[in-house]
Amino acid sequence: MNAIACHGISQSYGQYRVLRDIDLTLARGECLTLLGPNGAGKTTLLNILATLQRPSEGYYEMLGMNGRTDRDAIRARLMLLAHGAHVYDDLNARENLAFALALRDTHPTDRDIKLALDRVRIGAFADMKIRHYSAGMKKRLALAKLMLARPDVLLLDEPFTALDPDGAALMRDHIGERVADNAAVIIATHDPDKARPVTTRAGQLRHGAFREIALEDLRADGAV
Amino acid sequence: MTIHRVIRGVQRYQGWVGGGAALCLLAGLYLGLLGSPPDYVQGEVVRIMYIHVPLAHTALLGYTVLAGGSVWYLWKRDPVVDNMCHAVAAISACFTALATATGMIWGKPTWDAWWTWDARLTSFAVLLLILLGYLMLRTMIDDPDKEARYAAVLAILGFVDLPIVHFSVEWWRTLHQPQSISLRGVSIASGMLAPLVLMSLGMSLLFSYMLMIRTQLLYLHRLLDAKKGRLLSRFHAPNADS
Amino acid sequence: MAPFKTIRWIVWKDVVIELRSRETLASMAFFALIVLLIFSFSFSMDQRAAHEVIAGIIWVAFAFTGMIGLGKSFSAELPHDCLDALRMAPVSRGAIYLGKVAANVAFLFAVEILLFPMLVILFNLDVVEDLSLLLVTFFLATVGLAAVGTLFAALTVQIRAREVMLPILLLPMVVPVMIAAVEATKGALNGDPPSLYGPWLELLAIFDVVLTIASFWLFDVVMDA
Amino acid sequence: MNPLRLLYLRWSVVLVAVMGLAALTAQHYRDHLAGFVPQEVTREAPAGDIRVAGMVQRGTVTGNARAGHAAFQLMGREASLPVVYEGPPQDNLRAFKTLVVIGAWDASAGVFRAREIGIVPNYGFVAGAYLVGLLPLALLVFAMSRRVNLLYEDMKTSALYQED
Prior knowledge:
heterotetramer, A: 224 residues, alpha/beta, Rossmann fold, 6-stranded mixed beta sheet, 4-stranded antiparallel beta sheet, 7 helices, 32% helix, globular, C: 225 residues, mainly alpha, 9 helices, 84% helix, 0% strand
């Protein structure tokens, strides 16, 4: 059973076609690093897979579930790390984690949350309002959320931006751990060097069309 | 490029519907203006009924079609159905505005006022506001899928709301003033029935004809956009297409 | 997750954020106060005249205040794309809706209770001894406003010109709530026998039930893609 | 035939039919409108059946119009006209009501013998309502049909619409 199987997914906005006939399958335990210049449709593809929008044409299956009909079941198994941190400014880190995980029907104890925050090294700021967090700290908080939720499918949109080398290493180690744990991961990034150690497959989006590339061709400039 | 089968059907039958509408309306106009007797109380002014009442009925019919089409869209997610809903809304708004206008013209000689807070006039005004809000909403969304969904939500909720609006306004007016000469006070003489039925039928047919035309219009625009987009992306990414 | 738990978490989140920032409550209360002040300047009223128009003034003020509160309840989800997080959450959309409605009713009702003494002072009202029916009126009308308003706030927050579109779409829909609320409030403030304005409360209750059910189902369409 | 030309042809047929109907209607109502005011009747004493429009003078109504016979003074701008009504039962006879009476001038008795009483027709409102109701609809339908036809023409001719 494939973790993700896209069948002819296209997305158009009026006369602009952002995605064109994407056929893509990803097995569990695979990590696909997706390259592509700005406007290539990476975020749109991740949004479609994350059930945030419906493709204009085509459909996908995730873990054997239909992306059109079993949306709630799919949502329970995947997580999207997006540009927005999905946190509330006026809650502190612990409250944000508790709320986000409660919506996923995960109820970590205070100790679990504290441990996760310590692992991403923001345990010292656990009671600070997110309003005062830096972008990197928010990213680390999102990483802590991933660690606690442990979804089967991870969709990561620019996971390394805003992170310092230490944070990027934490992120990469977690991805590697999840891949070893038989999760399926898609990383959309402009920074393939950081993703390379955990990548098992590479692909490229150009003008909305997907094509698989060799791992050796995974380069930052994206020119293949 | 294939044309949607609904649009094909529309192309086949639109001539009959349009011709039927023209015939019914002409016959209805003849009977209404010349062939029917003036009313005992209202005199010649009663002839406004033959245009006002069919317009109002058709506006309500249009709103029912809009709500039904919206449910249909949410069920099937067929863009043609969305084009139809968009078309219905514009046409119903037009019919509602005209029904209100002719109602006001009827009100002036009968109640000696262009506007009264009569339950029907008020509900029609609210209906018109909802329809205009609907059309405005559609211009505020860029994503066509989102536009269709949100418009459907608004239409369905408005349809649920409308009886409550009418009921509450009617209740409110009867509490505040004795019922004024109601438009319903006109007893329908036998000579009046024929033009009324013909005009109602003609207006419903005209509404269907307009709906067919406007649905095609919106559909063709969408087709044009999609087609242009395909050409554009072929131009941008020549390799990807082969 | 059990829907009730989701509702509780959503309400908890909204209330905690509101208690920390006090943005919505403060701006709503302040706005309503300004509206009331402007009304009291523009009609120089004796007590008798006040009784005729006060119910209308109250509900104009509350409706516009409600627009602010309802709009904020979803625009607060916009920073850091929290709305997307809610849309991706594997919980029933209906539970999210009910949680948001509950939080909105709580905020609006709190502001109304807060402003009522101010009204009594500004417009020299005779305070009726039995306020329970007035409170029921306020509550039912607030639920009606919030039931439709929450749906439309969720809808308009995802489109252009949302601050304008919310009142444009919402106000025509809640005409019945406004009529019934004004009539019932008038009756309650004048100390009329409840049998006179009771039907309006029934109408409010019917409206609340019908439109909450409709919005409950439609919220799914608004939030899901 | 060119579909656009066919459209214009169809609309011309409808237009002719509507104009014919309008002419008929106008003719019909002109016949009904031709009438006199009270001072003209007393001055010119026209023969035969005529229609006179005026307002019922207060306090002059005698008899019972509901039973079908009454007498009253019909006020014009300058003079008033004594009217004797014999005809079907009539509800509309009230002081200050503007009426049209139909009958003949009896010069020997100096009264107007009316056999029918009607209220003043208000064709302006009727015409206004029909124009307001139909004209925008017609314009809208015409504009839409034309645009659809143009779009189909475009589809056939323009390079944009080659088969996929």
